[in-house]
Amino acid sequence: MAVSELAIETHGLRKTYRTVRGRTVGVEGLDLAVPQGGVHGFLGPNGSGKTTTIRMLLGLVRPDSGTAAVFGVPVPQRLPEVVARVGAIVESPKFFPAFSARRNLQLLADGIGAPRARVDEVIEQVGLHGRARDRYRTYSLGMKQRLAIAATLLKDPDLLIFDEPTNGLDPAGIHEIRQTMRALGDQGKTVLVSSHILAEVEHVADTVSIVTRGRLVASGRVADLLGDATGATVQVQVAQADVEQATRVLATAGYVVRSDGGRLVVDGAADAAELNRLLGGQGVWASELVVRRPDLESVFLGLTQHDVPGGTSHRGERRLWGGGGAGGRHGDDGVGPVGATDESTDGVRA
Ligand SMILES: Nc1ncnc2c1ncn2[C@@H]1O[C@H](COP(=O)(O)OP(=O)(O)O)[C@@H](O)[C@H]1O
Ligand SMILES: [Mg+2]
């Protein structure tokens, strides 16, 4: 993929922090590729290096080594050339509690030389138009966060970077922010959103990068990652008297069947209708067929289950950009150790 097609690209990005207990690895040779347009989830557990990476992209932290580019422009070296195209919420901006959203945004717009007409546009964009004249202090957390997003939109950036924007929000607030991000992605903006809750971003992101311990463990289109996982499982409920025959019928057809408390579980079989047809053909009637698809959480756990300390290999990394590479699904070997180096304290800093 050509550099110009990527909103963000990093190679071997590394950052260690000096602490009283020695060195802590923040980011350990990270290769990121964020395509232009749409929502990209930057996912990983707490302490996996998401904030450190974002801070490096924004020139707030200097990498030890490696390279990063935003819209093909090397950062931090030439950050001033692209900074106008980037809006970010890393720490919540301060708003005046006694002023309305509109007044707060007008002040910010004046500060950065954005036209005042822009204020009403961004209020509309984040869906705050109904409440724009109310005081900030009367806002819900979700509304406050949407106002923060509105502030980043004032200069009409092409790339928006939100570091855990839903932290501390209730489900309604999370939903609001998700919708706002989705709308921005649909407008052609690139949204990089970090989260330690994979499920929260799964339904809003077009593409994701999943990191753990400062390393990339998987990246690509969400649909590809989920499709590449163990596949859907179908739970089949039949009458107790039919369990044996049903198992035989499905096993004969080549399915891997196990029984789970009176239910049959068929792994890697997405086609429930086919199972239904096979069973019905032998006079066994299913009372229930439930298709369970893997989510990002299970993909992530599958990738990191061999995550034992001591290994430093890059073998744990998988790339799905551009059609998934040569062999499709990797065996266990392809998801090997993504372990810590001996310097790493794995986010358990005191
Ligand atoms: N200023 C700092 N000083 C020392 N260690 C830090 C500092 N910031 C982050 N770290 C460490 O770097 C690692 C990655 O942290 P961070 O980038 O905040 O991860 P995330 O955002 O994914 O939770 C963690 O082990 C964290 O403790
Ligand atoms: Mg963080």
Explain this structure to me?
There is one protein chain. This protein has two domains: 3-227, Rossmann fold (3-Layer(aba) Sandwich), CATH 3.40.50; 232-292, Alpha-Beta Plaits. The chain is 29% helix and 25% strand. The chain has helices at 50-57, 79-82, 101-112, 117-125, 141-153, 171-186, 198-202, 222-228, 243-252, 272-281, 296-304; strands at residues 6-19, 22-35, 38-43, 65-70, 73-75, 86-89, 159-163, 190-195, 207-212, 215-221, 233-237, 257-260, 263-266, 288-292. The strands form three sheets. A six-stranded mixed beta sheet has the order 6-7-8-3-9-10, sandwiched between helices. A four-stranded antiparallel beta sheet has the order 2-1-4-5. The chain is globular and about 75 Å long. It binds adenosine-5'-diphosphate and magnesium ion (MG). Adenosine-5'-diphosphate binds next to strand 1, strand 2 and helix 1. It is an enzyme of class 3 (hydrolase). It comes from Isoptericola dokdonensis DS-3. Residues 8-238 form the ABC transporter domain. Its EC number is 3.6.3.-.
CATH fold topology of the largest domain: Rossmann fold
| Strand arrangement, major sheet | 6-7-8-3-9-10
Query: Judging from the principal axes of the Cα atoms, what is the shape?
Result: globular
The name of the CATH superfamily of the largest domain reads P-loop containing nucleotide triphosphate hydrolases
Query: What is the first-to-last residue Cα distance?
Result: 41 Å
CATH architecture title of the largest domain: 3-Layer(aba) Sandwich
Bound ions, cofactors and other small molecules, one mention each: adenosine-5'-diphosphate, magnesium ion
Order of helices and strands: EEEHEEHEHHHEHEHEEHEHEEHEH
Tell me the number of strands. 14
Uncertain ranges:
308-350
The percent range for strand residues is: 25-35%
What class would the helix/strand composition place it in?
Answer: alpha/beta
Evaluate the radius of gyration: 24 Å
Biggest beta sheet attributes? 6 strands, mixed
**Total of domains:** 2
Helix content: 25-40%
Mean pLDDT equals 83
Q: Which CATH class of the largest domain is shown? A: Alpha Beta
Q: Helix count, per DSSP?
A: 11
Pfam families: ABC_tran
InterPro entries: AAA+_ATPase, ABC_transporter-like_ATP-bd, ABC_transporter-like_CS, P-loop_NTPase
EC number: 3.6.3.-
Region (Disordered): 310-350
